[in-house]
Amino acid sequence: MAENDVTYITVGRIGAPYGVRGWVKVQSFTESVENLLNFEPWYFRQRCLDNGSAVNAGSGMNWIEAPLVETKIHGKGIIARFEGCDDRDAAVLMGGMEIGIRRDQLPEPEEGEYYWADLQGLEVKTLDDVSLGRVDHLMETGANDVMVVKGQRERLIPYVLGHIVHDVDIDGGVIRVDWDPEFD
Hints:
This protein is mostly beta strands. It has two domains: 3-104, Beta Barrel (Elongation Factor Tu (Ef-tu), domain 3), CATH 2.40.30.60; 116-177, Roll (SH3 type barrels). 6% of the residues lie in helices and 44% in strands. The chain has helices at residues 88-94, 116-119; strands at 8-18, 23-28, 42-45, 47-48, 54-55, 63-66, 68-74, 77-82, 98-102, 123-126, 131-140, 145-150, 154-158, 165-169, 174-177. The chain has a seven-stranded antiparallel beta sheet with strand order 6-3-9-1-2-8-7. Strands 13-12-11-10-15-14 form a six-stranded mixed beta sheet. A two-stranded antiparallel ribbon has the order 4-5. It is elongated. The N and C termini lie far apart (41 Å).
């Protein structure tokens, strides 16, 4: 597989420095915080400053391998130290950088299960074939996950299989929902 064909999934973000020896707090986006530690290598995606200049790693949508030295569970979170990050000043510069993994690092989901990253970008259509837009992202709520669908307007559609979500066709790029197009 060519490097351009690799799909990356954002699984976390670098937070604030931790101590003075280059450690940083890591915000994990995985279902259980510690699940992030099951993946290696990690990759960084660069963040850009307001003036458009780059900070640290690569540019645009490019991901580069993040050379991990050490990780630890710390309280309810994770702390990590990366190669070349040896003091607090270096750790401050890493703040806000996204952490990703290659899609092929994830196990294949069970039948009828999907990773959020696989749903993003899919077109959402009603059972009557009315397009509502595309899944921009998903969010977790106390009751259920919610698809943020952007089209002519933004809609929040609960991701409830069988009741609201009737069909997910990853290959066809479509999610069919029982949803009134007039309902926000």
